[in-house]
Amino acid sequence: MPTDQDTLRELFVTGLRNAHAVEKQALSIMTPQVARLEHYPEVAERLRLHIDETNGQIERLDELLASFETSGSALKDAALSMSGGMAAITHTFAGDEIVKNSFANFAFEHFEIAAYKSLLTLAEDGGFGQAMTPLRQTLDEEQSMARWIDEALPSVTRRYAELYAAGGSSQAKV
Questions:
Q1: pTM of the predicted model, to two decimals?
Q2: Distance, CA of 5 to chain centre
Q3: What CATH number did the domain enclosing 123 receive?
Q4: Fewer CB within 10 Å, N- or C-terminus of the chain?
Q5: Which three-class secondary structure state does DSSP give residue 17?
Q6: Any residues with CB less than 8 A from the CB of 59 and at least 6 apart, and which?
Q7: Per the structure, how many domains does the chain have?
Q8: Residuewise pLDDT in 10s, the chain (174 residues)
């Protein structure tokens, strides 16, 4: 385990910058999804809530980065936002878009959970106590969203199957 304070600080700040870019990517994935959800109002409602949470997470990360006299990486933010937007677009061509989006969102939430657990470890080891509360709040929000997706997947899948049976894949998509 690295014990050098400068090393821990560098790793922590890099992790914060990466998390900032990942949250920007999350927005670029969720925003187009919510705009396309016609047949799944409960999913749209929960995505809107998580978009609001994600904006708050970005604000908390901005504050933490500022406390280390730095900011998010414009290059990382732009690159991940673009890749998130491309991922969202590719699912629009799938007949089972809602199901694929659910799978991808579930995986993405778990990626974020792992990232925040890692950041909390670095914060603890580095003595960055000011970061613990905002990072725990974000971790709680990500875990809540992952649980919601997990619990909603059966009903989303059933709704998709019902719509598909009623009118084919174009009716069932979103």
A1: 0.87
A2: 29
A3: 1.20.1260.10
A4: N
A5: helix
A6: none
A7: 1
A8: 546 889 999 999 999 999 999 999 899 999 989 988 889 999 999 999 999 999 999 999 999 999 998 876 565 545 555 554 445 555 555 568 899 999 999 999 999 999 999 999 999 999 999 999 999 999 999 999 999 999 999 999 999 999 999 886 555 455
